[in-house]
Design a protein that fits this description.
CATH topology of the largest domain: Porin
CATH class of the largest domain: Mainly Beta
CATH superfamily of the largest domain: Porin
Shape: elongated
Helix content: 10-25%
Strand content: 35-45%
Radius of gyration: 40 Å
Structural class: alpha+beta
Mean pLDDT: 81
Low-confidence stretches: 1-52, 162-174, 215-226
Distance between the termini: 76 Å
CATH architecture of the largest domain: Beta Barrel
């Protein structure tokens, strides 16, 4: 009966919901120990042997061993109670500690409330190589990103600074007579959103750039310094891609035409600080249209039907007159245009070729590609009569890319054929109506060879050589005042050497490079975003540095 009362007392005490103090525990230890001893010894004394004969030596020995075990357990409990008594305070859970725990619980509840707000809307958010929002089942996703490229660039042309003879008015301001030009620039400040809708098979992307004004001319002075009024947000990409099946997809909207690999790689993933002048002038750029793509493990092919390429072959002299970027449907100068590219991946993964660099540790990768472009159309001359035939633009390119996991090698060759019975020249302000003239046949070609090597995981050295020429069959067909100012049959020859410092991969990167021309640079190769000026002098020196931030 006493044993049951002891256990009932202990059970009631703990079930009361009160937090026991060290004093209460100490007062319970002795009765609890006695009760346990009685419980353990009861079977021995209650044994049938006790009623008929005295306990044997074996029974006594077993009893002594149990008593010894109980003494050891009791000693352990007493030591633990002594430790608790030696600690400050009378209770395990003091008011101060209870307050701290309460504050932690409130913080957790506040964070839970924030997460519940997203969960109530069926969304999750976070960072995964970029900011994102997505539904719990990932059927709807929105990825937000951007890029800032802050540059300092300078150009030095020896022998400049004096008036040149033989140049009739209006003077060629691209040949600006300035010995040195330098300054800061933010020509690439981009924002983009992309993701998928109703599942991974329907993708979208919108991308734009806060463009700085780079209007230029081959005649007259610079028309206006529009710095304060420039910086408009210009749409670059706006398309929807539908994955028809595992290998086939269809893209509609405004996008880069599938022609030249150097152009297809995004700005933030380039090796050199800026793309080559060859790609800027002999590439076909972006357009509006529709594109069909096939892609398997080792082969990729794309075919696009569009409003034509961006005509920058001869700069301000428009061989073909098409500028489809952001143009409305009723101001297109192209009757039809087809662009196609095929790529063979001999080693590595497709994702490696979205970059022009190969960090230390990457696997070996090898890619070969060819692209072609063909279009016909008349330039929009407004109210001017255009009796000429349609302009024809045919381009062909081939390239090879090798990635060595710490080194790269890239080479390309591009050829452009033009037939321009309705060529035009844009005036320096891009205002007024262009007057078509029959330029006849033109031929342009260019090659790019570049290589890089990592001297450690964060430093990469690179070099590039670009060489090209644009010529026309009958230079006398060019209007008289421009004949001595453009297409002088000088080869473009530019050598660039520099380094990349990867602070956080390509997300935070600093680049430095130096370039020098070995020939005079005709006005048709003028490339302001690369700091390449037109000059009738060779040995133009170009200095560039850039901080890139991608988020």
């Amino acid at each position: 009966m006493r044993l049951r009362m002891r256990f009932a007392f202990v059970s009631t005490y703990w079930s009361s919901g009160r937090m026991p103090t060290r004093t209460s525990i100490s007062s319970c230890i002795a009765p609890l120990s006695l009760s346990v001893a009685v419980l353990c010894c009861a079977p021995i004394f209650a044994s049938p042997q006790s009623s008929s004969s005295p306990p044997s030596a074996q029974d006594v020995q077993a009893l002594l061993e149990r008593v010894s075990q109980l003494e050891q357990s009791n000693s352990t409990l007493q030591n633990q109670v002594a430790e608790l008594k030696s600690a400050p305070g009378e209770q395990w859970l003091t008011e101060q500690r209870a307050s701290e725990i309460r504050a932690i619980v409130e913080d957790v509840l506040a964070d839970s409330s924030t997460r519940n707000t997203l969960q109530d809307g069926g969304l999750t958010a976070g960072w995964d190589n970029g900011f994102f929002l997505k539904s719990p089942d990932s059927r709807f996703t929105l990825n937000v990103g951007g890029m800032i490229q802050a540059r300092w660039m300078g150009s030095y042309i020896s022998g400049s600074g004096s008036n040149r003879s033989g140049i009739t008015e209006p003077t060629v301001w691209a040949l600006d007579n300035a010995q040195k030009v330098y300054g800061f620039d933010a020509s690439q400040t981009q924002l983009w959103v992309q993701g998928n809708l109703f599942g991974p098979d329907l993708e979208y992307k919108i991308k734009g750039n806060f463009a700085s004004t780079d209007e230029y001319g081959i005649s007259g002075a610079p028309f206006l310094n529009t710095g304060p009024s420039s910086g408009d947000f210009m749409l670059l990409d706006a398309y929807v891609r539908w994955h028809l099946m595992d290998e086939w997809s269809l893209r509609v909207g405004q996008f880069k035409l599938p022609f030249m690999r150097e152009t297809l790689v995004e700005d933030q993933n380039q090796l050199v600080l800026e793309r080559s002048a060859i790609s800027e002038h002999l590439g076909v750029g972006r357009s509006q249209g529709i594109e069909l793509t096939y892609m398997d493990a080792d082969f990729r092919w794309s075919l696009a039907f569009s409003d034509g390429g961006e005509d920058n072959v001869a700069g301000q002299m428009q061989f073909f007159g098409s500028q489809p970027l952001n143009s409305p449907w009723d101001q297109i100068s192209t009757d039809y245009a087809f662009t196609s590219r095929a790529e063979w991946k001999f080693a590595g993964g497709w994702n490696q070729f979205t970059h022009m660099t190969s960090p230390i540790g990457d696997e070996y990768a090898l890619l070969g590609g060819v692209g072609t472009h063909y279009q016909q159309g008349d330039p929009d001359t407004g109210t001017e009569s255009n009796s000429g035939d349609a302009n024809t633009w045919f381009a062909l390119t081939g390239d090879v890319s090798a990635m060595y996991g710490g080194a790269t090698l890239f080479g390309s060759f591009t050829y452009v054929y033009g037939s321009s019975p309705s060529a035009t020249i844009m005036n320096s302000a891009n205002l007024g109506t262009p007057t078509p003239f029959d330029l006849g046949r033109s031929d342009s070609w260019g090659t790019v060879i570049q290589a890089s090597y990592y001297i450690d995981p964060k430093w990469e050295l690179y070099t590039r050589w670009e060489y090209g020429l644009t010529s026309v069959e009958d230079p006398s067909a060019i209007p008289g005042q421009y004949q001595n100012q453009i297409l002088k049959s000088n080869h473009l020859s530019l050598i660039t050497t520099g380094a990349n410092w990867y602070l956080d991969g390509e997300d935070v990167k600093v680049s430095f490079d130096f370039g020098i021309t070995t020939t005079a640079t005709d006005a048709n190769w003028y490339t302001p975003n690369a700091a390449l000026r037109a000059s009738d002098q060779q040995d133009e020196m170009i200095f560039r540095t850039q901080l890139q931030l991608v988020f």
